[in-house]
Amino acid sequence: MDGVHDMGGMHGFGPVQHEANEPVFHEPWEGRLYGMNAAITPPLFPNIDASRHSLEVLPPAEYLAASYYERWLMRAERRLVELGHISQQELAERVAFYRATPDAPVPDRANAASLERARSRFSRPSAPLHRPDGAPPHFKVGDAVRTKNMHPRGHTRLPGYARGKRGTVARVHGSHDFPDTLAHGLGAQPQGLYSICFEAQELWGESAEGQQRVYIDLWDAYLEPADG
Questions:
Q1: What is the pLDDT of residue 97?
Q2: What is the pLDDT of residue 82?
């Protein structure tokens, strides 16, 4: 979808700041939130693409004002309300309580089974992503392709700055689940996935730095043969 999250190539956000010896989590609550997402059963979202889309639909002002894990927290709150686990009123009352009494103890409901689920998720090997049963890739390494100028209302992995642009297939990854349908419960629809190489000038015009290239992983549904 065309949303505030799609920031590639936009001006005004400043450079990416690299923090020396940056910790995994800057605050203890970030780690707890990360662990909670791993331990909840059933998961809050059926797959990673659905969870990504839930971030994309956050109100733009809230999205831009929030840190990375603050967005995760807002996403979890909204999802818990959607699933009926808590009500909006209960959430508002609990937030108001801790704002008024920030030193009040936080409930400790240690659960060995939840802890084991989180540990298992972090320690088990990742499943292969290639889907041999999917549609075979349409293109091969070296093929010239052009991305479609598309503006889907739902989730997509084709960034706005790379739409309607000419590139070259640098690598064929095989057949992989299609995030645009997976995010919305429309099936995996596995299809060809590629690493597409774009010249910087193709993406940004004459103002781009010379001798620079951008590689983006893109699915068959985003691509068509380049003219000429």
A1: 96
A2: 94
Find out whether the peptide bond into 107 is cis, omega within 30 degrees of 0.
no
pLDDT digits (tens, 9 = 90+) for 45-91: 999 999 999 999 999 999 999 999 999 999 999 999 999 999 999 99
- Picking from 134, 128, 129, 132, the residue whose alpha carbon sits closest to that of residue 187 is 134
pTM of the entire predicted model = 0.88
Query: In this structure, what token pair is assigned to residue 152?
Result: 């889907």
**Cβ contact 75:55 at 8 Å:** yes
Whole-angstrom distance, CA of residue 193 vs CA of residue 139? 9
Handedness of CA 138, 144, 150, 155 (dihedral sign): positive
Neighbours of 184 (CB within 10 A): 14
Angle of CA points 98, 104, 106, to nearest 5°: 85
Q: What residue ranges of the chain have pLDDT lower than 70?
A: 228
Distance of CA 176 to CAs 38, 161, 169, 223, Å? 23, 23, 16, 15
104: which DSSP letter?
Answer: S
Please confirm whether the linkage preceding 136 is cis (ω < 30° from 0): no
Tell which residue, 67, 58, 75, has the closest CA to residue 1: 58
> Does residue 222 contact residue 158 with C-beta atoms inside 8 Å?
yes
Query: Which residue has 């004459």 as its token pair?
Result: 206
pLDDT of residue 228: 54
**Contact criterion met (CB below 8 Å) for 180 and 156:** yes
